[in-house]
Amino acid sequence: MLSHHSNPPDPPPIYKFACAAGRELCCKIITARLGYEPHGYQLDGICQALDGVDLLAVTPTGSGKTGFLVMYLLVMHAVMREPSLCGEARPPPHFRKDAAMVVVCPTKSLELDMAPKFQAAGIATLVINKDTTDIARRQAVVH
């Protein structure tokens, strides 16, 4: 007797952000959350990074490098809250529902500059450096 096994259906394709539709989706999510449109070079980099491509952004001071980090997390969080934003496709496998990011800064002043930008976008931050650990130690002794 011959047995006919049916193969399981192929999973939906992985959503690609580095295309016109992906770029438009990112811009829509970012603009809705931040109240302004990202720069074109930010969208280019974010879309590539969301697709899993490593990114090295070399831009002048004050040009929006922190924005790359904030916007990347905003899009990932939005897609994981509402996967249907990807249409029939599925989010990339590296996306996580409660994604977090570790940012290593060369100076305390940069940490203090970046934290409010993340917080303004609704992303919780925790700055860890000698000053913050000293404060935490002193508070632990008091309690």
TrEMBL record:
Transmembrane segments: none annotated. Residues 42-124 form the DEAD/DEAH-box helicase domain. Gene3D superfamilies: P-loop containing nucleotide triphosphate hydrolases. It comes from the Eukaryota. GO terms for molecular function: ATP binding; nucleic acid binding. This is DEAD/DEAH-box helicase domain-containing protein.
